[in-house]
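Fold this complex.
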Amino acid sequence: MTHIVVDPVTRIEGHLRIEAEVDGGQVSDAWSSSTMFRGVEIILKGHDPRDAWAFTQRICGVCTTVHAITSIRAVENAIGAEPPPNARILRNLIMASQMVQDHVVHFYHLHALDWVDIVSALSADPAATANLAQSISDWPLSSRSYFTSIRNRVAAFVERGQLGPFGNAYWGHSAYRLPPEANLLAVAHYLEALDWQREFIKIHAILGGKNPHLQSFLVGGMATPVDPDKQASLNMTSISAMRKLIQQARTFVEQVYIPDLLAVASFYKDWAGYGAGVGNYLVYGEYPETDGDGAPLYLPSGVIRNRDLSQVEPLDPAKITEYVTHSWFEYDGGDDQGLPPAQGETQPNYTGPEPPYERLNTDGKYSWLKSPRYDNLPMEVGPLARMLVAYAAGHPRVQEVVGYALGQLGVGPEALFSTLGRVAARGLETLVLAEKLEGWLDELADNMGRGDLRIHDNSKWDPKSWPKDCTGAGFHEAPRGALGHWVHIVDGEIANYQCVVPSTWNAGPRDAMGQPGPYEAAIVGNPVADPEKPLEILRTVHSFDPCMACGVHVLDPQGNELMKVRVQ
Amino acid sequence: MADSPRSLLVLGLGNLLCADDGLGVHAVESIHQRFEVPGNARVLDGGTLGLSLLSCFEGADDVILVDAIAAEAPSGTLVRLEGDEVAPAVRNRLSCHQIGVADLLDALVLLGSYPERVILLGLVPESLELDTNLSPAVARNLPNLVGRVVEEATRLGCEFQARESLRPDGSAPAYTRCFGPAPRGM
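Structure:
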């Protein structure tokens, strides 16, 4: 038996460590650990709840808007503020554009290299690549000379000796299966997607100011003035600029992302048989279509148990608890009970080895993540959960696009419960949302045209208008899945704050009953051709789009011969 | 060739929740409090956004990254790297978090839009623990770092005008970024 440690496994933020036992070329057991303590809950105690979003948006380096919005919703829920329709629409635009951008970046820049072999792309024939490109899409950048130039660009980059983003992968691994031309096509779109996301994210600058961190959030609504006639407001010029970006996004997703996804997937259909995980799915739902509590959501909420698509159970947040049996925390009432987040405790108790270490004690506590459970069951959250719940609930457009993808690949719905299903669901969700964005923009423009310029409910801004003691919960579907914040406010100050983030649902450790979390369960059974290069494990873990608490950000020039540090 | 004014981007990096890790963001905030930023410069809080910061580089001829830098020197020591020294420094990282900045610079190379000049200015951190406050050594030297950024900017053709001193002793007000904007009409 071989014991493999993959540390770290994410290409961006975080400190995720996977330990896996491999037996006979297959993973027989796995443990997922976050080695980074995340404790914004502790920092928030005593602060003004109206400021909480500014802290929570720093929890995760790449998920800033999602934690801001969830925090604001939790506080609004607690104090009874009711954001007006324009605030709802602005938030929908911010959230869905974030989702579209984030999913494209995940597919091309964080996950593609698990499936695409860059080095193989260098040996592709540009003419054959042009043929391939034209056979799967009408996207205009598909000429032989274009692919020649891309090949040369990548070759020059590789020759510089610094592989950079291409340096982490296992080139030449036997599990890579795309022909050189498909690899070159994917590399070309890797570069185009970089350019595209640089352009598309300007929609956030329009909605939230020039700073990369949106400044326009506000408990009770938004701080973005809307007025068709004012220069300094979100006006008709901004609407038309956003419309252009949204249309470009939709074209890119339709003509680049989806064709690439299906083309790549067609070479890896066996991955519809790996990585299923726990088979339970939880969705809070997102994109309110009207205002107030109980508004219909464009992507519905619900729970699916045991891969049963014949029924979607209504979500009851009261069934959510968190265990710390295998987490480096302690509960006052003992570590084997599950606590609902509203009564949650954040008391760190590190009992792990002194780093650097070779192995964690996985019989005991082994992660800084808690283990969230729904009705005591582990739940997968994220794009696959959302698409499955929408599909099973009869969402017309989701049923259509899922049916289309399954048809193109010649597989049935059971293929969705897999690593490949997770990758496909993310792409299909991107398509559905890219299509939906323009409708919200029209709704906003209509409201402005009718003279409804309200963006904020001022009635609850003054803490004197709040109950002396109140609690609230805010829910959101972030790109990586269901996100919840729970807040307890006493005398206008935060008395307790708990976040249950998507990666905690997915990457959390075993619970008191010994049930593995979604990552742990999904990795088991994966093939591992070369224990020195566990590419297959990365495929499954990356299919969840891991995003741990962003950690330490320090540049280290030590030990690098090229470097001279001038101390001044 | 006509002289068009050079454009400068000052980008503060790091996580505000992890003590000195966020010193680049604190420095940027302090610049905004103490100086008028000229029209040919942008001074932005990049946080830990990584690849999403690509659009900020658009049109920037010169870039000053401000960040925590690990070096064998006392906490709070000012460190300056330039040009070819920067990319290896962000790649040779203490944590995988750093991949964000390395990927960002690689993406600029790949897109053929790497700025003409990239300078990395920072301080050696003391604490990276969960804390919204800077350690004493870094807090003490933050004004030096800010001064150095402004000095470099001046050298690159961007004059930052000092605002009228807000306090009798000339100090900047306490860091106040973590307060949301007040609602309109209040």
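The domain at 2-543 of chain A is CATH 1.10.645.10 (Cytochrome-c3 Hydrogenase; chain B).
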